[in-house]
Design goal:
eight-stranded mixed β-sheet; alpha/beta; 2 domains; three-stranded antiparallel β-sheet; about 40% helix; Aspartate Aminotransferase, domain 1; Aspartate Aminotransferase, domain 2
């Protein structure tokens, strides 16, 4: 039997809640399930306000509007990230400025941010790779000194923390993902987390197509009208119903993933000691969520051969991001500050292993085959 790289986990309550949503006759967003999810997220993530969106991409696009990004404005971020991180700002005319990543966590190298700041810089977007927190104290200090916004791309960071604080609660704004490849899933889906009170009211306007509809439903105005720019960013009640079932089980989902992650980590210690592969590094100040387990192989050739051989044995493994600076659009609309040596080196060497609740019964087989292929 083939072992897939990812298999979306369901708790058993998703269909029950979706049926309740259907029976409620309110299928558009903003209903009872949306409200339960946002309250849950606000309590779990420790943010001032959570706004449920149809994707993490939508949340990032909302953040770019809230940041008032204008043509020519620069936004500092890593090149080693998903396209949405950059695209959300390019849509507003912004210019992503790429800096290198750290060799240990593959997160943005905070020591290189200050040198990338120019009079055009408006924001820093740290990406919490693999659910491992960036060095947020340093990043926030830099942002404070230069009066910049910090927008956390916490797509992979649900239930992760940095120095005891939930990821998504530290920057001025943050974005979560509930895509089927993430720990907590609703098929598609995301959330914008607002921590800076300056953005609380406007975030609601942008979510609701530029109207003050939320204020109307709270009885704060006698009718709602068009007051700002915005778009259709809201998730439907069907998505929210599915998500609520997942959020209610987030602790058990995270624990099951962590058990698999820890088994991988113990099993591959000898590969690391022999120099055949490097395991993930988790700084002491970070509390990760076992979003992914990866190995760093010596070079691109060995990584490619590893993926091919495991595929022939029925185990699906994948590489991850191709650095955005190497893409056709990246070369056209972004710029690079300093060299990206680590970005290009690490992206060529990384292989991601299957990790999903339900893998437990097949985990020993995956470990044995990965060990044999890497050793061979």
């Amino acid at each position: 039997m083939d072992i897939p790289f990812n298999k979306p986990f369901t708790t058993g309550k998703e269909l029950i809640y979706i049926e309740q949503a259907l029976n409620s006759r309110q299928l558009a967003g903003g209903g009872a399930f949306t409200k339960k999810c946002t309250v849950w997220l606000e309590q779990s993530a420790g943010c001032r306000k959570a706004l449920l969106t149809h994707s993490c991409t939508a949340a990032l696009e909302m953040a770019a509007i809230l940041a008032d990004i204008k043509p020519g404005d620069e936004i500092i971020m890593p090149s080693y990230t998903f396209v949405s991180t950059a695209n959300a700002f390019v849509l507003r005319g912004g210019v992503p400025v790429f800096v290198d990543i750290r060799e240990d966590t593959l997160n943005i190298d905070e020591s290189k941010i200050a040198a990338a700041i120019t009079p055009k810089t408006r924001a820093i977007v740290p990406v919490h790779y693999a659910g491992v927190g960036c060095e947020m104290d340093t990043i926030m200090a830099i942002a404070d000194k230069h009066r910049l916004l910090v927008i956390e791309d916490a797509a992979q960071g649900v239930k992760s923390g940095y120095k005891g604080r939930p990821l998504g609660s530290i920057g001025h704004l943050a974005a979560f993902s509930f895509h089927e490849t993430k720990n907590i899933v609703s098929g598609e889906g995301g959330a914008l987390l607002v921590n800076d009170p300056r953005f609380l009211e406007r975030a609601e306007y942008i979510l609701e197509k530029g109207t003050n509809r939320s204020r109307f439903f709270r009885g704060e105005v006698d009718k709602y009208t068009w007051v700002d720019i915005g778009s259709s960013f809201l998730a439907s009640e069907i998505v929210a119903a599915c998500l609520l079932a997942q959020l209610e089980a987030e602790d058990s989902i995270t624990q099951r993933r962590m058990d698999i992650w820890n088994n991988y980590h113990r099993a591959f210690m000898e590969l690391e000691e022999s120099g055949k592969a490097r395991r993930p590094i988790i700084p002491n100040e970070c509390q990760h969520n076992a979003h992914m387990y990866y190995l760093l192989l010596p070079d691109l050739e060995k990584r490619t051969r590893c993926i091919e051989r495991l595929k022939s044995q029925g185990i699906s493994t994948v590489f991850h991001y191709v650095p955005l600076d190497t893409s056709p659009m990246g070369r056209k609309v972004t710029r690079t500050a300093g060299d990206l040596t680590q970005t290009h080196n690490l992206s060529d060497r990384l292989v991601r292993l299957p990790l999903w609740p339900g893998l437990e019964d097949q985990l020993a087989e995956v470990i044995d085959k990965v060990t044999a292929v890497v050793n061979g």
